[in-house]
Amino acid sequence: MQFQPHLRTYVRYTSLNVLGMLGLSCYILADTFFVSKGLGSSGLAALNLAIPVYNFIHGTGLMLGIGGATRFALAKGKNDDEGSTVFTHTLLFGVCFAILFLLLGLFGAAPLTSLLGADQTVFEMTKTYLRVLLLFSPAFLLNDIMLCFVRNDGAPHLAMAAMVGGSLSNVVLDYVFIFPLQMGIFGAVFATGLAPVISLMILSPFFLKKKNSFCPVRCRLNMPLSQRLLACGLPSLVTEVSSGVVIMVFNMILLSLAGNTAVAAYGVVANLSLVVIAIYTGIAQGIQPLVSRGCGLGDTDAVKTTLRYAVWTVAVFSVALYAAVFFFADGIAAVFNSGNDLQLQKIAVDGLRIYFIGCLSAGMNILLSSYFASSDSAKPANLISLLRGLILIVPLSFLLSWAGGITGLWAVFPTTETLVLCLAVWVYIHKQSKKKKT
After folding, report:
1. What pLDDT sits at residue 20?
2. Theoretical Cys-Cys bridge with 126: which of 46, 172, 384, 410, CB 3.0 to 4.6 Å?
3. Are 299 and 77 in contact (CB under 8 A)?
4. In 10 A of CB 215, how many CB atoms?
5. So what's the pLDDT on residue 282?
6. Sequence-ordered list of residues with C-beta below 8 angstroms from that of 374, at least 6 positions apart, any chain
7. How many domains is the chain built from?
8. In this predicted model, what pLDDT tens digit does every residue of 169-191 receive, in sequence order?
């Protein structure tokens, strides 16, 4: 009987978080659909070139939110009064990053657009999207921080409602701005930028009614605390940034292999991948409060049970997902191929079927990375994230695309994730055997 309440708690946290993350991923997915319908393949290519910057902004917000909330939950489990100090430090880092992003948006949008590989056809659209996205970065960062702290403060329902509410508003505003108001690419990114503002408005009653157990306090900068905070959150940043890095590298290679049509086709794969990664991130973030609390209380059985539930959830979802992608790849690609471009359709279908072979390994890697970070084991978490996000995938992209062209490029993702998973499982088994010996 003792496991049933734990199962209910697991389902409550993960299901709400998955729903919330699914809603959050609709920021870009709604843009992709409406931009493809309203602006064609050029708009889709521009959007795909800009996605890595969104990944970096959102990843920074998650690094601060997850890192701060993990320290907050560990302190809460130990009945430590450090929680508000952690929150204050998290906000301070958020302000610093927001200033950097704002300056980049004001003065660096054009060079950044060139760096991302935009040609004359899509340069202006890409620059507009990037500038507005960066100017809304304070709202994105604050929203990510608040969502994580509210979830760890015992209000996962409210966090989910805020994420879904913000995302639904994005879908509605996308349609209104792009079609009736004819605002083009600016309308798409303006709708995306308003979504975190609306999400924060939904969260506000939690603070107005003083249900929160954390608040900003006067304190000195604590460097050891800051280092632990950032270390716990770094895997979340790397997970998000890795998606952006992969998109940037793939875009560059695809431009050289088949031009803007291949980049637009990859937009279909990349945006579906964002949704899938959001689900895995939702599961991983859902177990974070439970794992952190269990570690704070010294309840190793609860931690192991939580991880076991999460592994089964990822496995079942991954099998179902790949079956759906394999059999319905034509239909998925056609949704975003408003111009009925035969070359785009073929590249996208092949990409979907090969790329998503790696979804199971990717889900397990994200889960294990989050588990290590949530249990205050930052080094293996960071190792997993860096290997899958930078160290392996970038050289493999050039190697496999050289050997197999576009088909070889699609195989990079499953190859990387499988190799990293082998290492991640070995690290987990090694750490468990060391615990048994002690």
Report:
1. 67
2. 46
3. no
4. 11
5. 83
6. 70, 232, 287, 288, 291, 292, 295
7. 1
8. 888 898 899 889 988 889 888 99
